[in-house]
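#structure-requests
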Amino acid sequence: MPTGVHLRDVRKQLFDAAERVLLRDGPNALTSRAVTTEADVAKGVLHRYFADFDDFLAELVRDRLTRLADQAALLRAAAGTRTVAENLIDALTELFDPATVALTSLIFFRDELRTRLRNRTGLPILAEARDMLKRYLSAECEQGRIAADATVDSLSLSLIGAAHLLFAGRRRGTLPDTGELEKMVHAVMADVLQRRLL
């Protein structure tokens, strides 16, 4: 490995390698050796920057959560534009990309990783995704685009749970048919979208 490589570059190289291993081989294949081999770096490099492999995985998830925070800000800003269903469909498609679905599976599989990330309410990634939709739906409620008495907590949980089942139930790396996602979003949102007109 070249000397003088900035820490952020090494971290990104290792994170990218871990995502490739996850997507190609699944959570059970993700080991420190698999990551360093995929990243084409010496075996000790990962442990130079992270206390242990679970520390590395926790940082990998936190990196994904930072990206999710950026997506949440964009979705919140989209309130009042296009249709509510279109915004939700696009947000869920972006959220449940193959790497995020694989990371969610990894969190399910690894008890130590869940423990390190457990300073949140709910399962990491899915809990933040629920909060993202909750803030967006609250903004749409304020603008009168969904019923004023909509229970955004329940709607957010329903959308995240159903979308996760749709995306995670596929062969690794594949996406559900767009029509399935559209049907699900319209079914969950139908009542609050119709009642806003009453």
